[in-house]
DNA sequence: TACCGCAAAGAAAGCCCTTTCCCGCAGGGA
DNA sequence: TCCCTGCGGGAAAGGGCTTTCTTTGCGGTA
């Protein structure tokens, strides 16, 4: 590997001058020398050693992000928002997949700290696990004490800057929607119980049902992995145990897609016999059949906001931004079969989906 | 930030000893000192500066990957394979999204070189662009000359180690499949013409049609972005110009999903009036309706093989591994409406899909 | 002619680690 | 008793770059 001194030697200048030319220092360099340096760079195919640069420069410029899995559409969208703002500000993004392993999250915090990132963003659900939460907070606090910035997305447990999707209201909205359609026998296909995302969404849903005089007993909830196969398995278990269900609420879109697949394999018509709802409004939600009624979260916006918080030290105390959820009605929901309402209901233009925008504030369930 | 000397001072030892304790050097250290160092590390929440470590250590351990977009399922699967092998060998992966921008690809090669990666893997289609290809090869060669390893996935243009999905045979298989179903009026929804992936798949398809006495004129091909919206737009244009089509071949699954959406919006029954095929067999292909008939590529395997090539210097010349494509028959294809064959054909169990495995070797189109 | 000031280039001091080399010491063999 | 060996620990030399500080050389003024 050619080094800076190689370049300097070949150009007949000092390393200092070569450095100044190469990274456009404010110090002026004669046109003659500048040219010689640039020619040497080209001749030697010189690329600066990033580690040496990062070591020599004092200011930290990269930003670290810990997500569950970038290839999961939920996090892919968030990452898109993060990336946009980071790129605008000339920051490099280091993305780490934790695959929802708490230990790996802790390791990645250390790794990012070791890489001298300017900020760490933790995206994705928190855990109901006091021990882990404590350890994580210790690490993050230690990082903040050395000047690092931290922002979280959708996590209650850290006390700093945060962007929170309104999961609870989202659950409430979808519950209200189903009650309005006359559903009383509602089952839930939930993600891991240990995730706060699961419990938040569930709490909102339960609040809505309670408001409408329905209940949500534990045996109508099945917990599984937050993915397609988890959704299919949970739906199968649920239907076997509760054949009278008229609606299945999946707590994210992947699980809902699994639910749809399972129902199709059992030839259960959706939404005529069973309605299905998702959560998140992943892009694919409009392309499955029937197109998925779901709760939309402004994922890209969430990422963008979080990065903005992370990069702006801010003045006062911790800032928390709650972003509203909204229902997107598509074709996977219909009136409850027993409700006596008309069987046929107008269907949307394929894939478009009318959005029902609602302010989160003022409609939050009690 | 606490440094190694801080730790050493607090433990009352030299930095050398502290270093040896912290990264488990082969040199033995007394239990007493070891404990003191570890306690100092814990007290100070010390994390080694990764850049300093990387600079001081000579051996390069990270591996760089350049993909179009990790959140695109095609690349997500490949990345999974890459990651698996990398993790097994204790390598860190640096993933760069080029978003199919050639200039960005070049920049990322430099970036990765600057980060002293042990190998660079370029995943994804090459370009029909001699100037770019030349510049890329120059950069890669310069990198290889300094001891770096290079492997490519699905690119003809670089002469080193390569993993090649058999796109041409895949196109041929899907063409043969449609001909067997009696389709004669076949349109193609293609990705960008500048990508070798597009032209390879197209070439195989064309070969199959020619073998069956059909032709594929240019006006039955529409080029667009390799995504859902590109697929929808291209399908719309194609149908407007060629209303008699009985089959739409999309050159990847995302485009096929766009095609399905467009056909649904026009109330064209699939496959009764028009058959649709995809390419890649992304996970979602089985969950759209009708489930997508497509060409399966062993994406995870491709990633794993590429990483293996990249990490193993190998003995002789460049190694090229061609991985076979296979047709996955699902519900989006059926007999051509005019072909006089039975309208009803057996349907697969939802989502499963019978796979037709074929060896690539020996069946390659002329 | 002597001096001053300024601009441009170079010297050198880090940045934080790893690792080689060297030293001191204790134990064992001659 | 002396020397050699082996082991644990420290000193110090990088690794490649940035940046401050210093030097050099020039034009301009007194």
TrEMBL record, chains A, B:
SMART domains: HTH_LACI. The keyword Transmembrane helix does not apply. Keywords: DNA-binding, Transcription, Transcription regulation. The keyword Zinc does not apply. Residues 328-366 are annotated as: Disordered. GO terms for molecular function: DNA-binding transcription factor activity; transcription cis-regulatory region binding. Residues 2-57 form the HTH lacI-type domain. This is LacI family transcriptional regulator. It comes from Micromonospora endolithica.
